[in-house]
Amino acid sequence: MQALTSLFSLENRTALVTGGTRGIGAQMAIALAEAGADIVLVQRDTSNQQTKQHIESLGRKATIYTADLGSRSAVSELSKSVLADGHDISILVNCAGIQRRHPAHQFPDSDWDEVLQINLNTVFTLCRDIGAYMLTRTPFPGTESTSPNGGYRGSIINVASLVSFQGGLTVPAYASAKGGVAQLTKALSNEWASKGVNVNAIAPGYVATDMNEALINNPVRAEQILVRIPAGRWGTGEDFKGATVFLAGKASLYVSGEVLTVDGGWMGR
Fold this sequence. Notes:
Elements: H1 2-7, E1 14-18, H2 23-34, E2 38-43, H3 50-57, E3 62-66, H4 72-84, E4 89-94, H5 109-134, E5 154-159, H6 172-192, E6 197-204, H7 213-216, H8 219-228, H9 241-248, E7 259-262
Parallel strand pairs: 1-2, 1-4, 2-3, 4-5, 5-6, 6-7
């Protein structure tokens, strides 16, 4: 039992999480803390302290860094600040995202640019910069045989979407960005898996969060979605805790380049 438990332990680990103030991201951050990790939360501002307080109530450290993820320069400075302050990041979770809905023939350039910046460009920048640091880390003891380059150094978990596979309706920017996240995940895995950094993604199905408020508030569309979900319900943030802990640690050392759907069976329908 102790050996099995150690596969899912994140003791002495530090994770950087974007989008951790609410919904899926909050539960992912809390799950990592429950498994033993300290958490660096990236937020737009410090007004929302709920996730930080929850993590601290678990006896783990939680530190907030503020950054405008819609600003390329702010994102570039973020990693430098976090690493300069001595945080040994061995888990990166890119969960922050926004949604903009318009018919494709009316989709504004400004919304396109904003969605692509936050949902894809920021993901790449953080993967690149934190990933570069992970590649320099000393491998975790006991993992020397897990890669040709001496062992396991860290895990990156990106948040993709069902529209990484499907096109969606009235969300061309979001679909393009999330399709890009899936391919970025695979591309980085191809380069880094042999060097001890695993890169995977979680693709949420339909989840009852603020981002899906427009769908939830449309009774016809909400019912159309519900009847197609084999599990018979919309997802919740808590449904992502197990997958996050799995992909963050030793239980998934031979898993890389995977886009794991957590969708109540939607993609198998």
